[in-house]
Design brief:
Rossmann fold; alpha/beta; 6 helices
């Protein structure tokens, strides 16, 4: 896991909305074990920032320009393979399953996880899958029981 040098997890935030990037950065920078090392407004800039800054985790809007499953695949293909957490205002099945199938460690809904976000990111960094979509755990359990 890449860090900023003081035991902190290096994070890149990618979202096409500057207000979202700023709010997420302010929230995560309050955590002693996280440091936001960069931000990006599109998929290409997210890959560049993650590669150059050796981010351990990329928190990305999946609906921004250059985002989605293709971006997740590009990020997890980086030599240091950051943890990728998809963030969206949409809870549609096709999108969240595609993000996870591409190698994402989590799919979270914007506006529903703010207070829990640091703990959820720590869970992802420990190698666990997180699906923050209503009804998703029941669906996964159903599929696994087949």
């Amino acid at each position: 896991m890449a860090s900023s040098g003081c035991g902190e997890t290096a994070i890149v935030i990618a979202d096409d909305d500057q207000r979202i990037r700023s709010a997420l950065a302010a929230l995560l920078d309050q955590e002693l074990d996280f440091t936001v090392v960069g931000t990006a407004a599109n998929g290409d800039d997210a890959v560049t920032a993650a590669r150059e800054l050796r981010a351990a985790l990329v928190l990305t809007d999946v609906r921004m320009s250059g985002g989605g499953p293709d971006l997740v695949r590009r990020l997890v293909a980086l030599p240091h393979r950051p943890v990728v957490v998809g963030l969206s205002a949409q809870a549609d099945l096709a999108t969240w399953t595609a993000v996870l199938a591409a190698g994402g460690s989590a799919y979270l809904l914007k506006g529903t996880v703010a207070g829990d976000l640091p703990a959820l990111l720590r869970t992802c960094l420990q190698g666990h899958l997180v699906i923050g979509v209503p009804g998703a755990p029941d669906l996964v359990r159903h599929l696994l029981s087949r």
